[in-house]
Amino acid sequence: MVLLSDVVAVSAEVAATSSRKAKTTALAGLLRRLEPQEVATATALLAGELPGGRAGVGWSTLASLQVAPASEPTLGIGDVDAAIGELRAISGSGSGQRRTAALTALLGRATEGEQWFLVRLFGGELRQGALEGVMVEAIASAAEVRTESVRRAFMLSGRLPATAGAALSGGEPALAEFHLELGRPIRPMLASPAETLDAALSESDGCSVEYKLDGARIQVHRDGDEVHVYTRTLREITRNVGELVELVRGLDCRSVVLDGETLALDDAGRPRPFQETMARFGAQEQRAELLHPYFFDCLHLDGTDLLDLPLRDRLKALEQVAGEHRIPGVLRPTPDNAAALFDEALAHGHEGVVVKDLTSPYAAGRRGKAWRKVKPEHTLDLVVLAAEWGHGRRSGYLSNLHLGARDPDGGPPIMVGKTFKGLTDELLAWQTTEFQQRATGGDSWTVHVVPELVVEIELDGVQTSSRYPGGVALRFARVLRYRPDKEAAEADTIEAVRGMLRGG
Ligand SMILES: Nc1ncnc2c1ncn2[C@@H]1O[C@H](COP(=O)(O)OP(=O)(O)OP(=O)(O)O)[C@@H](O)[C@H]1O
């Protein structure tokens, strides 16, 4: 039997080393020791996820609890699972009090180190998407299967616990059982940045160059008349986007999975601000502006999965089923044609282009070289770590943001700079409320927050710095907008920030 204290020890070991190999070895070592019934819960805990999802425990409850710790570790993985299940089942009148009582009982059975872990687990502070890649490798190593097989199962299920369960109990054959299922979204394929268009073009033999639209990612699943629409973070938004559902229901096919971008357009056909597209995803009421879909990939058509086929074949399927709703682009362009498309995309108010290798399969959830994004200006998506109270006109508002870049090895974000520029009155008011709800501590100047909000920052470049732990500082940073569609695990890495040193 594995104890919670074993998980806590391995988590600490993983956090303490920056060596990917050491992290994988530590995680795999523990995974190997698990009983089959412990695998799902222990995997979730190691990945910093609350087993089974949210349990309705807020920070205010957690912060108010002072429970004397146990002197010896006795909590097994099964005990933790059962206690979380009980917490989740509490409902009805007096549920707040009963939840506090159940949580107090659990914490009373935990040692000091275990309490620390559990409080952060409930508070969502341990969840680090960057750990996912390391976990995938650890599962492969513990189960003695190919990393690619584990990665594929994870992309199709979106769940590490289920992936680990299959790998450790059934090996390769069990992993091969994972399929694209209509109605279950998969993690979208992502792009990595290219310095220039020419650099991106020179990397592939044949490519598709497409507009990079500044909208919001959608994944659409249709099975007969049933249509579901999901966001980039796999949230279902079907009820909010009736016009997209109708459009996909009208396509000439029985079943299909399409990947694309959606955008609200003004009367002249120019993109509306990104915030308006995002607002549609959250709004319950119908709004005036209509969303238009721009599909760029087809992952399934009429009973056949296309994920493993090269892009050129997926694009043929896309043309067949949704040709008139394809994103603007060119296949196998000359350098001049590609440059013309890039200029045209910018002239229409879009972000740039994406250059895609026509031979590449769909590698969900990965930021690989098969898709390269090319943009003209410098922007970074960073994580908000803290904010300082403003002065003068901004007094009473949380203003100056402390910004962190992602640690690719799964550690906490690394601070790279501060800015209060670019914040509108509306954003100031919004973030003042949001940050206080996410506060983890601070002093009279500064409020530290759970590092989960992603903000897009425009900057002139970066410079070396001895002030910040990553050795780099942002130059002339200003806030462009918040990125509610992104999680901290998708923020730019410290390496991406350092990579900008070259560009000046
Ligand atoms: N033609 C396209 N092909 C793929 N993705 C596209 C395309 N046009 C727009 N996009 C958007 O770009 C995103 C892919 O770029 P990337 O993986 O870098 O995500 P990102 O970090 O959101 O990009 P950025 O922050 O630069 O907008 C997709 O999630 C999608 O929303």
Identify the CATH class of the largest domain: Alpha Beta
Give the rounded overall mean pLDDT: 91
CATH superfamily of the largest domain: DNA ligase/mRNA capping enzyme
Low-confidence stretches: none
Oligomer: single chain
Keywords:
EC 6.5.1.1; 23% strand; OB fold (Dihydrolipoamide Acetyltransferase, E2P); 3 domains; binds adenosine-5'-triphosphate; 5-stranded mixed β-sheet; 504 residues; alpha+beta; DNA ligase i, domain 1; DNA ligase; DNA recombination; 7-stranded antiparallel β-sheet; 17 helices; D-amino Acid Aminotransferase, Chain A, domain 1; DNA repair
Please characterize this protein's 3D structure.
The chain has helices at residues 4-16, 20-33, 39-46, 59-64, 77-89, 95-108, 112-122, 130-143, 147-157, 160-176, 197-202, 242-249, 274-282, 311-322, 335-347, 425-437, 494-503, and strands at 190-193, 207-212, 216-223, 226-230, 255-264, 291-301, 304-305, 329-331, 352-357, 367-374, 379-389, 398-405, 414-419, 439-442, 446-449, 454-458, 461-464, 472-475, 478-482. The radius of gyration is 24 Å and the shape is globular. The chain is an alpha+beta fold and 504 residues long. A hairpin with an 8-residue loop joins strand 12 and strand 13 (414-419). The strands form four sheets. Strands 11, 12, 13, 14, 15, 16 and 19 form a seven-stranded antiparallel beta sheet that branches. The model has no long low-confidence stretch (mean pLDDT 91). Helix 1 (4-16) runs antiparallel to helix 2. The structure holds adenosine-5'-triphosphate. The site of adenosine-5'-triphosphate has 16 residues, from strand 1, strand 2 and strand 10. It is an enzyme of class 6 (ligase). It catalyses: ATP + (deoxyribonucleotide)n-3'-hydroxyl + 5'-phospho-(deoxyribonucleotide)m = (deoxyribonucleotide)n+m + AMP + diphosphate. Belongs to the ATP-dependent DNA ligase family.
